[in-house]
């Protein structure tokens, strides 16, 4: 069975990772701009990144060259609310209005992520996600964005990978704001983020000017696939086990999607669940690998430049498992790999590993689709090489190579492979 005719073929990026322009046109500082000293590989900063803030028009032309019909981007909250939640920076809003207008003109569907980890510094100074008032500013911020963009934007993602910004930002301290908090604080933060998600989803549903399609983008930490050591049933049960705490998909998705607490969740009330559990239009998630520890630790098992195992079957099994549990159409909001890319003597960027990775991963997603699981889209991470958080610029995920000295863009071989997959709507896999 072919992917549907309106399948979303997408690439994605995030504000803090690609935009730069960190002090331009009234933008305020975010936690990555302000707190990163001493925390990022090579002392890199996100201040300039891919300079997409100034080069976005040319960059959108590259989307056309790749042939995607959709583009996932995130809003920099500090560009909209530089100092507090009452003073809107109109120039910041205009940037996004211009962006979505141009996307629409080019026939590319915008997919807007409201929060991709770049909390404004003023929010952090009030306690960030530890402060339950974060639910209020997030709701207000959502209203501002929805009022400005929802005549053009239909697809919304509230939060990107709450697992990561909560655990890495507030537990291990590897990501901004680089804090280490105890488990009860992680529960408090998780509750605030879930409430903020629920309030935002409701705002979008009620205020959007075009009928919205809403989801969030967890990453399935602890997702395992069947193997010689695990039956399908066991893999399913292990995948939804919550022993990984806030890393697990279940921690977030059962309350958000099903309106249910998982066994042992004693920190959400029934009242909370009413706010958190809002109707969603798809189960969107970011997936890079399965997490079968024993099976994947074999000597020399294939890995990306991040050291992440290459397990294409995770696409098939995750779609099957998530559809079984949550019953919503599947949208892959991130998938891709970091590779050791450089410009070759022929001025091209040859990345055969990524070409192969994309073919195998998307083929596995198609297998799920062929078996009747409603798969509505696939978004490759990432559009441009970009600022890979604490790893700085050393890890390249892009379909487009960025020379950070000259800001020259070069489409990698994988961009052309992806273009061919899109052209055939996945039938050439
Ligand atoms: O670059 C990140 C992205 O911001 C969130 N998901 C994982 C990607 C690769 O690490």
Task: Give a verbal description of the structure.
The protein is α/β, with parallel strands linked by helices and 429 residues long. The protein has one domain (8-423): Alpha-Beta Barrel (TIM Barrel). It has helices at residues 15-18, 31-35, 52-66, 77-80, 90-105, 121-125, 134-149, 162-172, 183-207, 232-239, 249-258, 270-276, 293-296, 313-326, 352-370, 413-423; strands at residues 8-12, 70-74, 109-115, 155-160, 213-217, 283-286, 330-334, 375-381, 400-403, 408-411. An 8-stranded parallel β-sheet has the order 5-4-3-2-1-8-7-6. Strands 9-10 form a two-stranded antiparallel ribbon. The two termini are 12 Å apart. The structure holds 5-hydroxymethyl-3,4-dihydroxypiperidine. The site of 5-hydroxymethyl-3,4-dihydroxypiperidine has 8 residues, from loops.
Write the layout of secondary structure elements.
Layout: E1 8-12, H1 15-18, H2 31-35, H3 52-66, E2 70-74, H4 77-80, H5 90-105, E3 109-115, H6 121-125, H7 134-149, E4 155-160, H8 162-172, H9 183-207, E5 213-217, H10 232-239, H11 249-258, H12 270-276, E6 283-286, H13 293-296, H14 313-326, E7 330-334, H15 352-370, E8 375-381, E9 400-403, E10 408-411, H16 413-423
Parallel strand pairs: 1-2, 1-8, 2-3, 3-4, 4-5, 6-7, 7-8
Antiparallel strand pairs: 9-10
Helix pairs in contact: 3-5, 7-9, 8-9, 9-12, 14-15, 15-16
Bound molecules: 5-hydroxymethyl-3,4-dihydroxypiperidine.
5-hydroxymethyl-3,4-dihydroxypiperidine binds at residues 14, 17, 161, 286, 334, 381, 388, 397.
By CATH's scheme, which homologous superfamily applies?
Glycosidases
Q: Structural class, judged by helices and strands?
A: alpha/beta
Q: Which strands sit side by side, in order, in the main sheet? A: 5-4-3-2-1-8-7-6
How many helices? The count is 16
Number of strands: 10
Question: Any guess at the CATH architecture?
Answer: Alpha-Beta Barrel
Strand content bin: 5-15%
Whole-number mean pLDDT? 97
The end-to-end span amounts to 12 Å
Assign the CATH topology.
TIM Barrel
Low-confidence stretches: none
- The rough form would be described as globular
Largest sheet report: 8 strands, parallel
């Amino acid at each position: 069975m072919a992917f549907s005719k309106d399948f979303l073929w997408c690439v994605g990026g995030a504000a803090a990772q690609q935009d730069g322009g960190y002090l331009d046109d009234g933008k305020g500082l975010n936690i990555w701009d302000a707190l990163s000293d001493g925390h990022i590989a090579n002392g890199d900063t996100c201040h300039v990144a891919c300079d997409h803030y100034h080069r976005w028009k040319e960059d959108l032309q590259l989307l056309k060259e790749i042939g995607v019909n959709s583009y996932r981007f995130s809003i920099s909250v500090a560009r909209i609310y530089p100092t507090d939640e009452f003073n809107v920076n109109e120039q910041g809003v205009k940037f996004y209005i211009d962006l979505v207008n141009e996307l629409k003109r080019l026939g590319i569907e915008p997919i807007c992520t409201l929060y991709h980890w770049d909390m404004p510094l003023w929010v952090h100074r009030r306690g960030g996600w530890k402060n339950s008032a974060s639910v209020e500013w997030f709701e207000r911020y959502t209203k501002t964005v929805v009022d400005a963009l929802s005549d053009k934007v239909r697809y919304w993602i509230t939060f990107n990978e709450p697992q990561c910004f909560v655990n890495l930002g507030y537990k291990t301290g590897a990501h901004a704001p680089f804090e280490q908090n105890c488990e009860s604080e992680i529960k408090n933060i998780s509750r605030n983020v879930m409430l903020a998600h629920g309030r935002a989803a409701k705002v979008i549903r009620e205020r959007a000017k075009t009928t919205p399609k809403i989801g969030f983008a967890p990453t399935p930490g602890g997702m395992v696939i069947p193997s010689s050591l695990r039956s399908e049933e066991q893999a399913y049960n292990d995948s939804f086990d919550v022993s990984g705490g806030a890393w697990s998909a279940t921690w977030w998705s059962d309350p958000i999607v099903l309106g249910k607490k998982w066994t042992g969740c004693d920190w959400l009330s029934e009242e909370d669940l009413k706010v958190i559990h809002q109707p969603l239009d798809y189960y969107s998630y970011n997936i890079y690998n399965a997490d079968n520890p024993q099976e994947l630790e074999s000597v020399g098992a294939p890995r990306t430049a991040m050291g992440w195992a290459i397990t294409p079957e995770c696409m098939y099994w995750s779609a099957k498992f998530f559809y079984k549990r949550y019953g919503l159409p599947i949208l892959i909001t991130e998938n891709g790999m970091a590779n050791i890319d450089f410009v070759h003597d022929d001025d091209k960027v040859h990345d055969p590993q990524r070409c192969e990775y994309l073919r195998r991963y998307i083929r596995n997603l198609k297998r799920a689709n062929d078996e009747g699981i409603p798969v509505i889209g696939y978004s490759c991470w990432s559009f441009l090489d970009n600022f890979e958080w604490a790893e700085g610029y050393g890890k390249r995920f892009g379909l487009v190579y960025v020379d950070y000295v000259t800001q020259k863009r070069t489409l990698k071989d994988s961009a052309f492979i992806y273009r061919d997959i899109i052209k055939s709507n996945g039938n050439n896999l």
